[in-house]
Amino acid sequence: MVKQWLAHPLLRGLEVDDPRTTTVRRQIIQDNRFLRQIYEEWYASLAACLPVGAGHVLELGSGAGFLSDAVPNLITSEIFWCEHIRVVVDGRRLPFATGTLRAILMTDVLHHVPDVRAFFAEAERCVRPGGIMAMIEPWMTRWSKVIYTRLHHEPFQPQTPDWEFPAQGPLSGANGALPWIVFERDRAQFEHEFPQWRIDTIRPFMPFRYLVSGGVSLRALMPGWNFGAWRGLEKMFEPWMKTWAMFALIVLWREDGQGNRA
């Protein structure tokens, strides 16, 4: 009953894998001032991670977002064709020449990739030494586990032993706990399998704002004018983000094969 009441009315009758859903979600982000400010903050964080130098910047899974407002000449992409993207891309088979990308940026995308090993290998091939892969993803904490398992529509399975999950629809297939599994629980395994990807940053953050914003699937619970007050509240929780965070900024850099940044 709670989920039905919270569901955004613009999404009624639409399946998550329908490209029309992505178009509607773009409208939701634009219309929800509180939510839009969250994305602006996320995009500023991702843009600040970009290294200088040559190479294109790819956004994987651009979907309903507007990262191109913060990153000039961004190659926007999605798994299916929809508005405001430049190329249709499957992260497991990237259509770019070796070493031609300066960065790959993602927002809520990695946990939808059913074979992340294939993606990491492709990203390693395409990103030049000294380049980065930066993402904002769901994160596993005591608080977030309660929210993601009870209120969110996507699977959240931190107990699974595998990194893979069955491929379903392009957006319905997911494990929201996957970023935490790969970069926290199984970090040693990741570093062993992909030694040329060095984990630079894992910063858990944002325990409340996305939840009260309604996100791209639920009704907004807060008006845009009190965004600053919620940000101030979250700042008070910074010492305890390992318990309360719902997301994490994760940044990896691509070494040159000798343990150095190019």
Please give the number of β-strands: 7
Dominant shape: globular
By helix and strand content, what is the structural category?
A: alpha/beta
Q: How many structural domains are formed by the residues?
A: 1
Termini separation comes to: 54 Å
Largest sheet: 7 strands, mixed
On the 0-100 scale, what is the average pLDDT? 94
- Highest-level CATH class: Alpha Beta
Largest sheet, order of strands side by side? Answer: 3-2-1-4-5-7-6
Folded structure, characterized:
The structure is a single chain. The protein is an alpha/beta fold. It has one domain: 3-Layer(aba) Sandwich (Rossmann fold), CATH 3.40.50.150. Helix content is 34%, strand content 18%. Strands 3-2-1-4-5-7-6 form a seven-stranded mixed β-sheet, with helices on both faces. Helix 4 links the parallel strand 4 (101-107) and strand 5 (127-138). Helix 2 (19-31) packs across helix 3 and helix 6 packs across helix 7 (187-193). The mean pLDDT is 94.
